[in-house]
Amino acid sequence: MNSSDSDIILQLNNISTVLFKYMSPPLFIVGNLGNFTSIFMFSKKIWRKNVCVFYFFIYLIFGLCFINSTMLGSIFTYGNNIAAQNNNVVLCKFYIYAAFIWATGAPTVLILASIDRLLISSQNVDTRLYSSKRLAYFMISISTCFWIIFNIHLLVKVNIYQFGPSLYLCSYEPTNEYLNFVFFFLTGIHTLYVIVLFILSILSFKNVHHIQLIPRQQQKELRTMTKRDFQLLRCLFAEGIVFMIFAMLINGYYFYQAITREQIRTPLQTAVGNFINNLFTFLYNIPYCANFFVFISLSKAFRHDFKRLIYKVCGKSITVMREENNQINLAAINET
Fold first, then answer.
1. 305 contacts 42 by C-beta, under 8 angstroms
2. Which of 120, 134, 191, 304 has an alpha carbon within 20 to 30 A of 19's alpha carbon?
3. What's this model's pTM, rounded to 2 decimal places?
């Protein structure tokens, strides 16, 4: 290995360290604050009655779990060279197991929410009745139990393995069959998520387009969708786009790893591969940290409620508060 390759490898390693040591912590803080704020906003009575908000509520909880376990672990591991999972077998197993639960459960909730929006935007009255909290509770419970059981193989196959004279790492079982299964599963499930989310989003907006063609008076008689429903649908569509973009990036890396894993690589190729993995791992955290910004930018009702919260925290005058309340009441009347 020549000196130029060594310099490139050193630079790539330094960039990876900067990503997780200096850029991930602010993203970690913003993600936690944003998700906690969104959960607090959606816990209000005016939001709780909406089925789509329930799905968002669960999605935000999955996001918080991902941020405070998987993302926090990557900050310590790649940014500060502190890998506690490499020294404790139980922590090693549950660290990777939990990462798979959050990474498969969260997009599943987005898909279920998209199905709900497809139902509520239907012109058929009987179809719209399927959009209910009872169905939401049932589907969330079934999907969560499925991923908990399906991913249980990680508790058996993940362990601390020796990869050198004094190099012990928390990793998957180093056999060709199992590693192929893991990489092809990650590739397949993220591809499936992207395709399903894309199709459901297109169908939902097709339904919305048909609703908007109906005269306003007839829309009220049919009781199809309120303005709040339309705003939530836009938020859901944006959440899907954000997830699809970053899922496709890391999905491409998983696919590349799956087909080239057995090839002999030079130290430079290995360093480039590790850098791409670290970069895409960093970017994959963004969908779980961007929820608050999606809601506040695309939902007028969410912005109004957030402004009211800020007014209360800052102790703004009661007159201004009443003016805001009047505006929100007028908006609520227009929705009905």
1. no
2. 191
3. 0.86
